[in-house]
Design goal:
alpha/beta; about 250 residues; six-stranded mixed sheet; elongated
């Protein structure tokens, strides 16, 4: 059963699809990130097609690498979380709560200062463009005047605390707002009342293996072992985690 708070969320203006496959969400996120690294559209298309052909475990490792290691964000964990199903919807800008940005602490502090309020943001942007720039982030003067490319205009949103909160695509949200958009298209994470379980991938296990190798006391070895076992219980890919750990233990005992 969806949580009570989920039922209190603002209603979408339109629902295009429900139950969108989480690999589609992950693939869209990868496209948004990789197009900034690969200016050659043909090369980008070839790479994305190759990613889509990856088997399940390798695909999620790739997504984890881009999300966690390259961008240092929560997208991988949220997309893989069994607690959420995904809808594609049209949402009112006024219903969204802005969140932190990767542009640095200046914008993050500014957004927190206005409590993520999109209406207040637009008021301040109007003042900034009218010449009142003192005390406001210089980012406000760098927002492009052209519309966001439609291929990358869909944002990632989740419901939390009775509000629709952004969790990826803040720059694109701001650009759309600054160019007059009153609504946006989004993939929205919907709380389905299921377990709060995510994929972990073997990355953390590799780190724990190295810590185990570097440790010389039994207490540390036991703590690392307990941590890996807990990850195996928690993660939706727990069997893979335990498999890699036991292969390591077998090699260590030889």
């Amino acid at each position: 059963m969806p949580s009570q708070r989920q039922s209190e969320l603002p209603k979408p203006l339109k629902t295009f699809r429900t139950g969108v496959d989480r690999r589609e969400i992950g693939g869209y996120y990868l496209r948004c990130e990789l197009h900034r690294l690969l200016s050659d559209k043909r090369a980008l298309r070839t790479l994305l097609e190759s990613i889509e052909k990856l088997d399940e475990e390798i695909y999620w490792r790739f997504l984890a690498g881009i999300s966690h290691t390259y961008r240092c964000n929560w997208v991988f964990w949220e997309v893989s979380n069994e607690r959420y199903t995904w809808n594609e919807e049209q949402l009112a800008v006024a219903d969204l709560i802005m969140t932190g940005m990767g542009n640095g602490t200046e914008m993050t502090k500014f957004i927190r200062g206005i409590h993520g309020d999109t209406g207040r943001f637009l008021e301040i942007l109007g003042e900034y463009r009218a010449g009142k720039t003192e005390g406001y982030p210089s980012y406000l003067g760098q927002i492009p005047n052209e519309p966001v490319d439609k291929e990358f205009a869909t944002l990632l949103v989740r419901g939390r605390g009775g509000k629709l909160r952004m969790f990826d695509g803040m720059n694109r949200l701001i650009q759309q707002m600054a160019n007059g958009a009153e609504s946006i298209r989004a993939y929205r994470a919907v709380d389905n009342g299921g377990p709060d379980r995510r994929r972990v991938t073997v990355g953390p296990v590799l780190l724990l293996r190295e810590l185990d190798k570097a440790s010389s006391d039994d207490e540390t070895h036991q703590a690392i072992e307990r941590t890996v076992r807990k990850l195996g219980e928690y993660a939706t890919d727990g069997k893979s985690i335990i498999k890699h750990w036991e292969e390591y233990l077998d090699s260590r005992s030889r």
